[in-house]
Specification:
Helices cover 73% and strands 0% of the residues. It contains 11 helices and no strands. 35% of the residues are buried.
Length: 205
């Protein structure tokens, strides 16, 4: 293996890790929710990152710059999902768990495998502003290494999903995450949506 290839692999790992640290928490929250299939989380995360990589590659080849404030509008996706899940947190009464389950039943996380995958993919894409900001110049500067970057990213996605799953199943913190997963999910999604949307404020100035 050449030194140049090793350098490209190292760059790809560093770029992926630095732009997806926050995705670890999101993946753990999805894995902690018993209503969401683990396979759908993995498939959705792969799909979301594939969209980001394809969009970045296309923009790099066309030498396009994606305005950050327009990317920030993607924050509406996790915000809307979080707001739809929020009412379930206020269920009270003797059958709170059952009622909470019924309340969640009307939400996207209780739908089929494909819909759940799309939900995870949507959140991944919405949280991908920093990914685009890093991937576009990276791909544009070295288009000949795109294949290497894509291959490394695919491996890193699997590693990230494994880390998120292992976090949920960790004997020290996993049970707490699973117990409070229904609370964490809407709060994390709403906070994420608001954080992403903060950059869109410039559109109305």
């Amino acid at each position: 293996m050449s030194a140049a290839l090793l350098a490209d692999i190292g760059i790809a790992i560093a770029v992926y890790a630095s732009t997806n640290i926050d995705d670890l928490l999101i993946l753990a929250v999805f894995f902690a929710n018993p209503q969401v299939r683990a396979g759908a989380v993995v498939a959705g995360h792969f799909l979301g990152l594939a969209v980001l990589v394809l969009a970045s590659a296309g923009a790099a080849m066309l030498a396009l710059a994606v305005p950050g404030e327009w990317i920030a509008l993607l924050g509406l996706v996790p915000l809307a999902l979080g707001l739809r899940l929020l009412p379930a947190l206020f269920v009270r009464g003797g059958h709170a768990d059952d009622q909470r389950g019924e309340a969640l039943g009307a939400q996207p996380v209780r739908s089929g495998f494909f819909a759940q995958s799309l939900t995870v993919a949507g959140v991944t894409v919405a949280n991908g502003g920093d990914n685009l900001g890093a991937y576009i110049p990276l791909f544009a500067s070295a288009p000949q290494t795109l294949g290497t970057y894509v291959a490394v990213f695919a491996v890193m996605i699997a590693v990230w999903c494994a880390l998120g799953y292992l976090t949920v199943n960790n004997p020290l913190i996993g049970e707490r995450i699973r117990r409070h997963g229904h609370v964490l999910m809407p709060l994390v999604l709403i906070a994420l949506g608001l954080y992403i949307l903060a950059d869109a404020v410039r559109l109305i100035r």
